[in-house]
## 1
Amino acid sequence: MVKGTNFLNLRDAGDPVEVAALYNEQGADELVFLDITASYEQRNIIIDIVRRTAEQIFMPLTVGGGIRTLDDIRNLLNAGADKVSINTSAVENPDLISDGARRFGRQCIVVAIDPRRVARNGREYWEVHVNGGRTPTGLEAVAWAEEVEARGAGELLLTSMDRDGTKDGYDIPMTKTISERVDIPVIASGGAGTQAHFHEVLTDGRADAALAASVFHYKEFSVAEIKDYLADRGVAVRPAAPPAA
């Protein structure tokens, strides 16, 4: 397991199976497992780690990275994933979104969108990147979000490349814009550094969920602390742990 900044300078953050079990105990709502170099390195995702992770947790597991075919989706679901996240393959073969939704149900298909703010031809917009953030596509993120929803995606995993790993807060304008243009859930990612950032993206940013890595991996605060903070400010959250018998 690794974590970086702006998709670069990756450093070790622990064993994914052990950390997954810890987050399960802390009461996380969902775990997102992304093999961030699988597409760039043209290799398949590590099924064994997915299987061992699924055996340790009792919350939904979303898995992404290196998914290119319907068989890849099937294999991950059979290994214990509840959903799959596709990014590079969705851009290269948009039919994989619609074919996957028809075959396995749209609730299984999460499209990951990794945008970076760019300025071209006198205007600014968020450009979609693929291959772990290495390759710009020319696609405008808002229009692409609308297209993948129309093709059958059940959720969007929206990661700001500009904010990833910075701990400066989520990209609120981008998240809000896309959340207001689609009807499917939007998971905001990239930039969490304080408890207030979670509240901001779920309220001002209109996100349906907030994903974070560094602040949890390096034990800056726990899932329970975030949930208590949000609940105290009127955000509806699931309990961090089952109520005592």
Note: The longest strand covers residues 109-120.
## 2
Amino acid sequence: MLLSTIGLWALNLTVSRYILTHGFQPLAFSSTRYGLAAAIFVGLTLALERSLRLSRRDLGIAGAAAAVVYVNQIAFVYCLERTTASVLGILLGATPIFAGLLGIAARIERPPSRFWLGALMSFAGVALVALGSGGELSGDLGGVLLGVITAATWAAYSLLVVPLMRRHSATHVSAVVLGLASVPITLTAIPQLRDQDWDLGGTVWLLFAFAVLGPLVVTNELWFRALDRIGAARATLAANLQPFVAAAIAVVLLSETLSPVQLAGGGLIAIGILAARRRRGPAAPGE
């Protein structure tokens, strides 16, 4: 289940890049995709739990998470429009570092000194990826900046949903957060939705169905079942494979290329994550 989740998340970058370069406008794609995914989660939650109710406190957290998802999706689609899926895959490798920095800002944890070494190495890796994209604040480099925002906001979202997951099912949380996020995404997308040519061909619509059902719906269930069976520590460590797998898939399926400087940047990001990771003892029996 864990490897399937990583594979679906990684393949999503290549699929979304293909869709965006074959007729789908960025915001039209994001709003339609998230609207359908939200409708599926709402239907599942009502069928299984008969309610979407959250406490006032949890609703406030869900609203904050939805706002972060909104920024994340805007950055995600425009990053893929301006740069390659392989570059975004590498940049998403910095997500654990952003999660650690946000945890420090929120006073959730006090990392050891090696965390700062890992953070510096990872950000140096991001700088190399940006340097390898051309050195101008347009085109690929603009996409790199959007990719950094995508990684940072995904880390913020991951931290925000932790308290919600302690009190509600993953399906329930996804229904509320995606439902709330889809509203501003759709409002922002209205101009593109009006101009969108919906005659995109069977291949694009088949890949669109995958982008909705695979990376957004199926992985939600697989990921949390995997966490329950093998524990968060082992699952998160394995999830670090995703950036490498995403870049490899994009290179193979889209014939994308990575410069030696960008590959070196990806290596630095990976080494930084390993350097920053806390040493953990053996997993508890419950894991």
Note: The first helix runs from residue 2 to 20.
## 3
Amino acid sequence: MREKDENYMSIRIITDSTADVADRYLDKLIRIPLTVAFGEEEFIDGVTIDKATFYDKLETSPVLPKTSQPSPAAFEAVFKKLADDGDEGILITVTSKLSGTYQGACIVAEDFPNIRVIDSLNAAMGTGILAEYALECTDKGFGLDELSAHLKEKVSRICLVARLDTLKYLEKGGRISKTTALAGGLLNIKPVITIEGGEVVVLGKARGSKKANNLLIEMINSKGVDFPMPIVLGYTGRSRELLDQYIEASNSIWEGNVSELESTQVCSVIGTYAGPGAVAAAFFTR
């Protein structure tokens, strides 16, 4: 690590708009928005549409929204501003297995020696906790390449686990068959999912919300939480009622290990396929 000196460049942490972080970190990050479209109606994620409005539309729209990665010009504008200010930047993106954001950013970053791009191989709060940790590291004297390498080492320890309330949106998005979704709805099936190697994986299925919460708790316990590292819980939809129920049910995990559980509404990209009523936890494994 380098000694802190006023002559050194400041390292800024950048994310795309899919990274979900605790509110207290929002004004410390530079965020590059994706685009969300409901049919012909197009919005800039987090700029011309907020999460609450997105879920209002998701629950009432006859069509599933489509999302698109930031334009090269959007990346270039941020990278150039940092270069002009004499700063360096590390951009942490949503998994390259679900979006072209990482590849697009890497192409633009080739012209900016002050920028490094990291594929989180995760999404939503999974990307967010890496960004939160990166912010904590910026005052510790890391050089740009040193910090970039340090963060890449943490990617394999990110764990995002979620229980879904419905299979309807996975079916509408082409992730499962209509028959599977219909059977799941009739049986009140609540799948528990994670992201492994950048892709969505089903860990298990439970009948009813109570059993689904128990399965989510079981999966988190089996992974092993590194409590000193960032932890963020999340929910999809307009209400956080199901998240509050989960927090009460999972108190045995958190009590005595964290002073406060931070939470956020899940981003539009993941919310599109998870649908409303999902509950998730993101943490680093031991």
Note: The longest helix spans residues 209-223.
## 4
Amino acid sequence: MDTTAAGCHIHYHAVGSGSPVVLLHGGTIDAACVSWPPVVEALAGDYRVVAPDLLGYGESELADGPYSISRHATVIAAFLDELGLGPVTLAGVSLGGGVAIQLAFDRPDLVSALVPIDAFGLGRALPNGLLSYALARFQLPNRLTVAALRRSRRFTRASLGGVVHDLGSLSPSAVNAVYRELQRPTAGEAFRRFRSAEVTRAGYRTTFTDRFQKLSVPTYVLHGAHDDLFPVSWARRAARRIPDAELRVLDDCAHWAPRERPSAVASSVERAISDA
């Protein structure tokens, strides 16, 4: 399905009926059809599940301009308005988690409950310090990596070892979904624009650490115990600062919970729906 939001073409998947749940995928090489299929399957029997491709990802438009967290949130708010959705239970992983949190601050009228999963915005420090900053400024290594990965499903699978705890348990369907997205001519471009907008020498530009006390929607923080990109200590700090937040740390899980622990993600979303 397709619509226009904030002047941009947005592609989305929608199944089921009932209370609305919106799922926002992550960055790098991702799309709704990459991260969310097992969770959608678990939820679609009881809820209306909507999963958009974020701006520049999947089949959504690669629009001009910066790809900051605030811009992504503006587009998703317009998307929810366009579809007449809201308030919704809003879940997001990694980049999508940061977008979800930003949207909950910007438009709390659209969010009945929030489920940030290994979310961006929980801290400022870059995972590899100045190396992460250099890679964000000089994008050629990322372009070369994408070009190499799209030539080999085996290399693609190996690369996912950086976001999962047990590569051996990762389903072939997850690997195949990433590999298909790599074949898009624009694969990686939205992520490179995101890094340009959000990575600074001092760390991530967008962080909510000093604002969490003002978050006004019920929040259920989900985080992998072995996440090396955004440490679990960030999630614990966020849960302490967000009023009445709940935290669930997932064992045997790193940064990609919707694929590593989809049943746990689905049950947390259902808990958020029932408590909203």
Note: The beta strands are 2-5, 8-15, 20-24, 48-52, 88-93, 111-117, 199-200, 203-204, 220-224, 246-250.
